[in-house]
Amino acid sequence: QKEVEQNSGPLSVPEGAIASLNCTYSDRGSQSFFWYRQYSGKSPELIMFIYSNGDKEDGRFTAQLNKASQYVSLLIRDSQPSDSATYLCAVIANAGNMLTFGGGTRLMVKP
Amino acid sequence: ETGVTQSPTHLIKTRGQQVTLRCSSQSGHNTVSWYQQALGQGPQFIFQYYREEENGRGNFPPRFSGLQFPNYSSELNVNALELDDSALYLCASSLGGTGANVLTFGAGSRLTVL
After folding, report:
1. What is the DSSP secondary structure assignment for residue B71, as one 8-state letter?
2. DSSP codes joined into one string, A42-87
């Protein structure tokens, strides 16, 4: 079992729709959760992070964390073609310093 | 404020050769982490340096080694290159020696091993 799992996609949504990206993790002691966006041929850039159960909103993005279910998600409202990229979920285990990434989900937003 | 810079951006080596990749951390950051990202996969943690000492290592063989200098810049060295070492090598800097801090990535060095 991979430590951080994501559906590789592609996830295709129409422009203006809500894109929902999901991630599960295996280490129950994980404390910090991150979402990065990576355009083709570029390096990852941080979208947002979340530490506590519940929702965290930043503009069009909402991260949701459920530690009991070991599940973290990212919602993108009013999706734009410029949101088309690979979204990487990353986790830091308890007392660790290593960011463990999932394989990423490729999102395609169609005009 | 300068970001994370990496060099070279692209390079081609042959099996058995050695390579050195360089990274300058973002201003004010004292921690550097290195990741390997194979095509179509997520980044894999190689190691982290904090105050010139290795501060954690992923599942990579000893032929992957590194250094951090007093100015917090860093090098990744890979000996006896193998075809599977072909990947994008990402350097990320952060403040503090714990992983709870946010990483800022450089543009990466794309290594091709023939």
Report:
1. T
2. S--EEEEEE-SSEEEEETTEEEEEETTTTEEEEEESS--GGG-EEE
By DSSP bridging, strand B10-13 and strand B19-24 are unpaired
Q: A81: left (phi > 0), else alpha (psi -120 to 50), else beta? A: alpha
- Output the six-digit token pair for A103: 């394989």
The values of phi and psi at residue B88, to 5°, are -95, 125
Which residues in chain A are closer than 8 Å to B56, comparing Cβ atoms?
96-98
Q: Rounded to whole angstroms, how far apart are CA atoms B10 and A55?
A: 40
The confidence band for A95, taking pLDDT boundaries of 50, 70 and 90, is low
CB contacts of A6 in chain B (<8 Å) are 42
User: Which residue, among B89, B103, B109, B110, would best test binding to A if mutated, counting the most A CBs under 10 Å from its CB?
Assistant: B103
Rounded CA separation B77/B21 (Å): 6
Instruction: Write out pLDDT tens, residues A29-73.
Output: 888 999 999 999 899 999 999 999 999 999 999 999 999 999 999
Q: Which residues contact B49 (CB under 8 A, 6 or more apart)?
A: B31, B32, B33, B55, B66, B67, B68, B74
Partner-chain contact B58 A102, CB within 8 Å: no
